[in-house]
Design brief:
This protein is of the alpha/beta class. It has a six-stranded mixed sheet, with helices on both faces. Helix 4 packs across helix 5. The protein contains six helices and six strands.
């Protein structure tokens, strides 16, 4: 029996000053776009492309889909968490008090929701719902989901039934820019998703590749 392949692709490097980018709709840098192009050159041709609505995911996904004669399906369930007042705020502009709040958040995001931010529990529920919807569509072939690091962490926890509240999932688990994670699903009743690998990085960039 064959297996459905679902590649979870984190967006590439973003443009702009280093910051905590969640719902802030920052674009990819030229390098970030090249990272995604290079990573996708190593993948089998997608038969379905799904993406977050944020531009660092959707612009590339829509362009790739057009190359394949497809239409990218935008799903808000796969967008990044909203970091509230700290979303998109350059790190260099943060005060000592701001850093203290962020440290608490990173070490226990469930118990330390940032001001005006999306609670982690709410994010987990929407990401899990988006994943279940994706699996209910009996698509054969190769699905590419262009999304965010936080989303991929929660998907891994959901698939493996891990404790998504564990702070180590956010502070000690790296999902790099442009990395790919492969999930397969066999084509028999009650098959469970299998995680083949996590966070495979971009190995190199092709000379002259740009946005």
């Amino acid at each position: 029996m064959g297996a459905r392949q679902i590649f979870l692709l984190r967006h590439g490097e973003v443009a702009g000053a280093p910051a905590l980018y969640g719902r802030t709709d920052v674009q990819l840098s030229d390098k970030g776009f090249a990272q995604l192009k290079q990573q996708c050159s190593t993948l089998p041709t997608a038969t379905k492309i799904v993406c977050s609505p944020l531009r660092r995911c959707s612009v590339f996904a829509q362009q790739l889909a057009a190359e394949y004669g497809l239409k990218a399906q935008v799903n808000a369930g796969f967008q990044e968490i909203d970091f509230g007042l700290y979303d998109g705020k350059p790190y260099d502009s943060l005060s000592a008090e701001d850093w203290q709040k962020l440290e608490l958040f990173w070490h226990d995001p469930l118990a330390n929701t940032l001001p005006q931010a999306e609670p982690l529990h709410d994010m987990y529920q929407r990401v899990s719902n988006a994943w279940r919807t994706l699996l209910t569509n009996q698509d054969s072939g190769v699905t590419l989901v262009v999304t965010h690091g936080g989303v991929i962490r929660l998907l891994i926890a959901h698939i493996l039934n891990f404790d998504w509240r564990n702070p180590a999932l956010y502070s000690q688990f790296r999902i790099g820019y442009g990395s790919q994670t492969l999930v397969t699903l066999a084509d028999y009743k009650d098959a469970q998703p299998m995680i083949e690998y996590v966070g495979k990085p971009v190995e190199h960039l092709t000379e002259g590749m740009s946005k």
